[in-house]
Amino acid sequence: MGAGWLLSRFFETAYAHAHYVRNSMKVILLLGAAFLLLAVESWAKPVVPVSGLLAVVGMACTLKMGSIPFVSGRLSEKFGKLWLAAEVLLFVLVGAPVDIRYTLEAGAGAAAMILLALLFRAAGVLLCLLGTPLEGKERLFCVIAYLPKATVQAAIGSVPLALGLPCGPMVLSVAVLAILITAPLGALGMDLTYQRLLQKEAA
């Protein structure tokens, strides 16, 4: 959080003194700070346990709160463009070590477990929407929109395998299976229902 506050103060101070920092340079600085925070996790591990990923999230939240909406919006656009390439790389790296034999071995049991997890996920979405002004159809669309489970599975599915755990290949295979089931399910569900469940507000 301190890193996010320092970066927001640096950007605002530079702008106030007519030393405008380009958005591309801001993205580079943010990425550098994020990698530094991840490295601090390893450096500090013998002394005190810290989470580099939580530190990165805290930095981003603090930076957003300390910046004007226009600046945070432009940074979001820049990172969105970076994500287009990073997303492809992420899924390629996840798919490369998958052993199809473990996926076939998981079979129907893994698919049933994934579908059961989706039911709990849908219930969680509905609970989160309690007290909101959304109508029933809109809440149903939110449930459908939260069906895809891809990015997180791709990011952490290979961790047990990288740690050398015996269950690593199976965990990775089930994570990939979850992506293959939920991603098209959510995409098709949204494409087929958005016109019936949502209403476009008048301009």
TrEMBL record:
Which sequence ranges form a coiled-coil region, renumbered to this chain? none
List each copy of the Cation/H+ exchanger transmembrane domain by range.
4-184
The GO biological-process annotations, alphabetized, read as:
proton transmembrane transport
Concerning Pfam families, the annotation shows: Na_H_Exchanger
Where is it located? Membrane
- Principal subcellular localization: membrane
Matches recorded under PANTHER family = CATION_H+ EXCHANGER DOMAIN-CONTAINING PROTEIN (PTHR31102:SF1), PTHR31102
Q: What is this protein called?
A: Cation:proton antiporter
* Protein source organism: Candidatus Faecalibacterium intestinavium
